[in-house]
Amino acid sequence: MNIKANTNFGNIKESYLFSEIGKRLRAYQAENPDKRLIRMGIGDVTLPLPSVVVEAMGKAVLEMGNKETFRGYPPESGYAFLKDAIVEHYKSFGVDISPASVFVSDGAKSDLGNFVDILGDNEIMIPDPVYPVYVDSNLMSGRDIFLLSGSISNGFLPLPPEDLTGGEPNVIYLCSPNNPTGAVYDRHALKLWVDHARLTGSLIIFDAAYEAFVTGDLPHSIYEIEGAKECAVEINSFSKFAGFTGVRCGWTVVPEGLMAGDMDLNKLWNRRQSTKFNGVSYPVQRAAEAALSPEGMKQCVQNIEYYKENARILAKVLDEKGVKYTGGTNSPYIWLQCPNGMGSWEFFDYLLNNVQIAGTPGEGFGRSGEGYFRLTAFGSREDTLEAAKRLSELL
Ligand code: PLP
């Protein structure tokens, strides 16, 4: 063919992380069939959907099979019942948003990847290490990326680099609680980011996919910070909060009147979504609504507490052994510094060969992840306790 492909795809690194992990695990199991492997690398939930969610989805499916209650295409930006439930959810942490600012979608990954469609040729600022979708979707559209290094000294929570940006506007990605580091920005740090964005005319894309793991006085939403509605969009998901990784539902908040120059981003996102997206299915939206109901919240929080207890069990071993880490309290992730100066892959092999625990090497999440390692708390209690015992004997 003589057509041109998008050559920007040539700038993206092959996503070899999980295939390389899979390869090493398969090879190990083939050589050691009698050893029981504990997988602590997955970022996927394992507990089933809350019963109230299943009931709502089932009821909605039956409605779809009945002539009187059947529904065709959903509204592109979501049914009013779900948008209203999301608005109420924000009220629970003191944030007022309008239903017109809420766009329901099939998940946070799609929205994060698609949002570049409505932005022009900006310089992109992304903390490193982080969820790889921000970097890859911007590389795919040919954008220049500036990485902000996270390290143990800044708690993997980089702040605005005033001296480096020279006041230029950027599109800034923030993820809190962070994947992979589990680190959470406090109010003071988020205010520094919001002030920086307003001063420089920058846009913050705030990924709150792990918001439900936050407790205490830490912010759940960037809109808890004054002025954020003038400089930020927020992307959230039912995946980790309600176990929807296989169901698919999320949302993006684009405040009404949020302007990029003379272009209204709420209107652009609406235009983009109504052109390229046909909405989320009715049963899924009813299921999501049920997750946000008082009974749904109770059941979702129970599941989140289960994962958080797993995280506490793992963190306790690291505390006892003097291993440095972030996360483990308001997050399902524990991000640890590989002991004795080991590299990420070296530590991966060390854990696999000695105690048959599989985690994720930090360098897969960016350059600043070299020498770090991610363990997740999404496994079963039984596996987590066994992993803690094995780690305690090894470290
Ligand atoms: N954002 C972060 C930080 C994530 O870790 C993930 C999934 O692991 C997502 C977004 C994707 O969420 P969803 O399942 O809604 O696409």
Q: Give me the count of strands.
A: 15
Number of helices: 13
Please state roughly what percent of the residues sit in beta strands, choosing from under 5%, 5-15%, 15-25%, 25-35%, 35-45% or over 45%. Answer: 15-25%
How many domains? The number is: 2
Describe the largest sheet.
7 strands, mixed
Average pLDDT works out at 96
Helical fraction:
25-40%
| Order of the strands making up the biggest sheet | 2-8-7-6-5-3-4
Poorly predicted runs:
none
Any guess at the CATH architecture of the largest domain? 3-Layer(aba) Sandwich
**Cα-based radius of gyration, to the nearest Å:** 21 Å
What's the topology here?
Blueprint: H1 17-31, E1 38-39, H2 51-64, H3 80-91, E2 102-105, H4 108-114, E3 123-128, H5 133-140, E4 144-149, H6 162-165, E5 170-175, H7 187-200, E6 203-207, E7 232-237, H8 239-242, E8 250-253, E9 259-260, E10 263-264, H9 265-276, H10 282-292, H11 294-321, E11 325-327, E12 333-337, H12 344-355, E13 357-358, E14 360-361, E15 372-376, H13 381-394
Parallel strand pairs: 1-13, 3-4, 3-5, 5-6, 6-7
Antiparallel strand pairs: 2-8, 7-8, 9-10, 11-12, 12-15, 14-15
Helix pairs in contact: 2-10, 3-10, 4-5, 11-13
Bound molecules: pyridoxal-5'-phosphate.
The site of pyridoxal-5'-phosphate has 13 residues, from helix 4.
Keywords, separated by commas or semicolons:
Aspartate Aminotransferase, domain 1; globular; 395 residues; 4-stranded antiparallel β-sheet; Aspartate Aminotransferase, domain 2; 7-stranded mixed β-sheet; binds pyridoxal-5'-phosphate; 15 strands; 2 domains; alpha/beta; 39% helix
